[in-house]
Amino acid sequence: MRVPILLLAALLMSGALADETKEWEGAMASGEAALRDGRYAEAADLFRRSEGLSQSFGVKDARHLRSLNKLAEVQNSRGEFEAAEGLARKALDLSGTRPGAETDETARSLTALADALYSKGLKTEAEPLYVRALDTRRRVLGEDHPDTAEALGNLGLLRMDQQKFREAEPMFTRALAILQKAGDAQKAAVMVNNLGYLHQEEGKGAQALREYRQSLEMREKTLRADHPDIGQALSNLATALAADPSGLDEAERLLQRALKIAETVAPDDTQVGYALNNLAYIHHMRGAAAKAEALYLKAMQVWEKRFGPECAQAANTLESLAVLLEDAGRAGEAASCKARAERIRSKPAAGPAEAWASEFRTAQQASDASRFAEAADGFQKALEKAKGFGEKDERFIRTLVQLALACRNRPDYARAEAAARQAVALAQQSLGQDTLEAADGLNALALVLDDTDRAGEAEQPYQRALAIRIKALGGEHPDVAVSLSNLGYLFRKQQKYPEAEKLFRKALAISEKNQDLSYMAFTLNSLGLVHDDMKQTAQAEGEYRKSLALYEGKLKGNPNIANVCFNLGNLLKQKGEIEETLTLLRKAEAAVQATLGAEHPQMAKARHNLAVIHMTQGKDLEEADRLFRSSRAILERVYGPDHPEVASSLDNHARLLDSLNRKEEAEQLRQRVREIRAKRR
Hints:
The chain is an all-alpha fold. It has helices spanning 2-36, 40-54, 62-77, 81-95, 104-119, 123-141, 146-161, 165-182, 185-201, 205-222, 228-242, 248-265, 270-285, 289-307, 312-327, 331-345, 352-368, 372-386, 394-409, 413-431, 436-451, 455-473, 478-493, 497-513, 517-533, 537-552, 561-574, 578-595, 601-617, 621-639, 644-659, 663-680. Helix 4 (81-95) runs antiparallel to helix 5 (104-119), helix 7 (146-161) packs parallel to helix 9 and helix 11 (228-242) packs antiparallel against helix 12 (248-265). The longest helix has 35 residues, at 2-36. The chain is elongated.
């Protein structure tokens, strides 16, 4: 008689478990749907419910581990990294799985923990976890599973942060192919976004813009209009647009929309902070210092509330605020912001890879802003940190190349050449003769040789860099167009005009195929210079005007318009069309003032050219004297007193002083010219 009773008891227990299982499955499914839809607070509540229900299955049951992992995932999405880390560690401890024998659920725990550490800036600690998660998913799920694609993307982002771009890119492209094959458009859009981020970091702005736009379009087709991922895509596209002054208007509209989405979803979310920080940058570029400062301070409030006062996000905003305050003449406040940012950056929590990456990015920002002395010092600091990876490491070689380029622009040619030669030697010995790192070093070396009147020596490294890039990247890659242009300018200097023309036409064809309007305008201007040199005036004028039309149309606000104005103005001056020449030079001066500021080298060039026009006309000679002095002062502040551009300015100014019968002053300037040019030999 006991058997039926026991059997009945067993059946009753099984029925209760079945109900709990059904309820758990319902909570998990609803939580997954809320997570995909960006309803993070709702998803967190549902996963907490599923986690509570799953405890009845036993704390080591796969369902309980899954609940913990999903709750950790949603907390990472909400920026609650401490809580996410705790849950992921708990899941790993409960699973008790040894490395090499992990399950897919263990891979979820590893990923959630790595995500939390990565977001807290502990990227060195996150790296082995991402590697283990990827290895596990490959072993358990196979190479072509969507979860394997996500693991590839995670590791790719880490590699990108380490500036290992050539490791990251194939990870993103492979992950994208897997997700496209699986038909997961939402996650495929994430990988397209990651490629845009990668190419933006590499300085390939046109390519990044295309990918950011594609990612946004993909998300808008699959997500509701106020989904957080839409806001993130808008912000990313806006940052790429803001790199070019012609994109500031569109960037501001996108950021306002992104901010509205972020504030609707979660008023204290990280996306609010990013949108505020980026809007501040837009206003800074436009000269609206008060608006920019207020937005930077709001962003700081978000970071401090979300992550505390010593977070990496706060350091980034403090550095931007310091630049704004410097521009406003508030040097003391700027120094205080810089010092606080440096204290955050130097925290022991930052591993060597993060410390190097931070130093490298700061130096790159200085270089982009034409603060070359600051950039050279920054890259030298980054190089010291990169020594810890070993001189054969890609990061050490990459830093050497950037140091060479910064020193070239400073100019400090001896130091630039030494760094470039070391980069080439290390890349060829440790990474291979035909690697892109070797090509970067060769290109930097060729630029220095070209600048120091050794065009014959420069040709071979230019040619070698071009050949490597064609072999590694294909004949239609933007980097190939850059190499073609560099070699084209060398041939132009050597008066090999047909050869130069051929190279510029190839570069133009690549930019047209890639729909890179900015490089199209650049190469049209380059072709104009070659035909100008060849006295093919009509053809040169046509190319200059086509370039100018692009800058005044779809590239409106781009500071490179100044170069075209200078070149077309010089051509028109020779034709005697002085009024249009003056109009173009004033247009160049206004464009530089609006986009780059009064202390940029392009402003020096605009004022120098205006001075030459006045001198040529024999009119307003005192104004010409003022313009020459203003131009030279800018050049000396930016480049130092011994730059070739300074010598050219001095030379022309001496001619003006001769015409004003100020012979002694003129001779003093010529003596400086001789001294500067002697140092270049």
